[in-house]
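Quick start: load a record and inspect it. Here is Rrf2 family transcriptional regulator:
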Amino acid sequence: MRISARADYAVRAALQLAASRDDGPVTAEAIADAQDIPHKFLEGILNDMRRGGLVTSRRGGNGGYRLARPAASVSVADVIRVVDGPLVSVRGVRPPDLAYSGPAASLLPLWIALRANVREILDGVSLADLEASQLPDEITELAERPDAWTNP
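Running the structure step on this input writes:
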């Protein structure tokens, strides 16, 4: 699975908004500067997040962006889905809509299991968890495994 630059930037922007929730709306420029995200690229991401109901925006001198709901109720999966679509697909098709035959038949349950695990992890972590550096124990354990980030 690849995490696109768009998804990475969207999660980082959402975290910046979560951290700034008491400061009022945050401009796209401030988010871009704080997270080292190209401003024009970020504008498109924030528009997708607004259309997806994750952020609200206000124009004017005191304008900017805010999270549309509390950070504890926004999962990483919510953010990724809004900017990139389904978390796991095969050739653009969701695993339950695939059909294989012969020796490839066992691929379908493999893709479904992959999708279930990705969803479990990304739906199980909220922006508030990340902001507080309080990942669920099972995720911390997975990340600390010696083979977690190395290729066999």
